[in-house]
Amino acid sequence: MRLALLALACTAAAPGAGLVEAFGLKWRVPILEDWKVERQDGVPVLELLVPRPSLQPRRPSQYALAETPDYLTLDLELEVRKEPASTRNRRTSVMIVYAWRDENHFNYAHLSVDSAAQQPVHNGIFHVYGGERVRISPTEGPPTLVDEGWHKVRLHYDGGKGMVEVRVNGKTSPSMKAVDLSLGAGRFGIGSFFDMGSFRNVHVSGVTR
């Protein structure tokens, strides 16, 4: 009996998936305790507090997935702020999921302090289709998160044509453009591969299916 009660208490205390409400949307997160919403300068900010790298297979899992219908065309505008390098002495990044069909099939835009020439698995568009992530954009282009302030990001996705383009502070590059016809309509999310990060002023429009 004592062992059963102990097991029940551990189960109740164990972290688990949950929903976070922010920006007029509900977001499903893998571990509720890793995220929080707070007001900063009068603006709601969604913060990823705990980095949880996904190593087997190597693809992101620490992201908040919006509870929406599938978007065939998506215009997502938001502001992002990366984890300060001084926090863990790392070169950090954030990412935006799009065309999400399930945890094994989605694309994402990776925004980093590194250029793709410095690190080919950073700063670009990536594809997940049952296995590890694969880069699907060219490597030409500068880093996107050049300082530790807020950055304005706009992601445009046309699922019918498979085309995506990401602009950061109004600028894009070949590394932020790609075409993939394998997924089509899907949901979107925000988070990071290996790091912490902050998100605010999220606005979404497009055509759902």
Features:
globular; eight-stranded antiparallel β-sheet; 2 helices; Jelly Rolls; 209 residues; seven-stranded antiparallel β-sheet; mainly beta
Describe the structure.
By secondary structure, the protein is mainly β. The protein has a single domain, classed as Exo-inulinase, domain 1 (Jelly Rolls, Sandwich). 8% of the residues lie in helices and 47% in strands. It has an eight-stranded antiparallel beta sheet with strand order 1-2-5-14-7-8-9-10, with no helix packed on it. The longest helix is centred in the N-terminal third of the chain and has 12 residues, at 2-13. The relative contact order is 0.24. The model is unreliable at 1-14 (pLDDT under 50).
Question: What layout of secondary structure does this protein have?
Answer:
Elements: H1 2-13, E1 18-22, E2 25-29, E3 35-40, E4 43-48, E5 63-66, E6 71-82, H2 85-88, E7 93-102, E8 105-112, E9 124-129, E10 134-135, E11 151-158, E12 163-168, E13 177-179, E14 187-191, E15 197-208
Antiparallel strand pairs: 1-2, 2-5, 3-4, 4-15, 5-14, 6-11, 6-15, 7-8, 7-14, 8-9, 9-10, 11-12, 12-13
